Automatic annotation (TrEMBL):
Superkingdom as given in the UniProt entry: Eukaryota
Gene3D superfamilies: Glutaredoxin
Protein name from the UniProt record: Thioredoxin domain-containing protein
Higher taxonomy: Eukaryota, Viridiplantae, Streptophyta, Embryophyta, Tracheophyta
Pfam families, sorted: Thioredoxin
Domain Thioredoxin: 28-154
InterPro entries from the UniProt entry: Thioredoxin-like_sf, Thioredoxin_domain, Thioredoxin_H-type-like
Amino acid sequence: MYVEKYRVPKQQRSHRVHPATFLRIFNCLYGDSKDEEELYSELTGKNVHIITTIQSWEEKLTEATRDGKILVANFSTPWSGPCRSIAPTYGELADKYPSLMFLTVDVDTLAEFSTSWEISATPTFFFVKEGRQVDKFVGADKVQLPKKIAAVAKATRV
């Protein structure tokens, strides 16, 4: 059959490269010197902490608990369209609500850690108080995310 003749053998189909891995290789070969933290900080702003190691996650979690803040963790990737589109809004919210601690966790760099949070799509936002998840928001909805964060910020003042 015509289709069978041009079908890629199953063994070759399983060797796909993850988009983030492809971007890293491409950037190394063709000179984009920005690392992931630079990419995230351009998108999110100065009040969002970029998490690329378990140690930095634990430090920020300890800091938020010590300061009595709710931690808002955005699990995302720098190459995803929805993640990139919500990032400026997320950065504005970080500026607007200093009573909360805003993090962006790179799910590619911290793949095993991110898997432990059972993320089904990016971006996924977790609200963590005293080390425990208290709420979750999935998606890049620029109307609903600010409402959710405003409600969380209001609840922390009560």
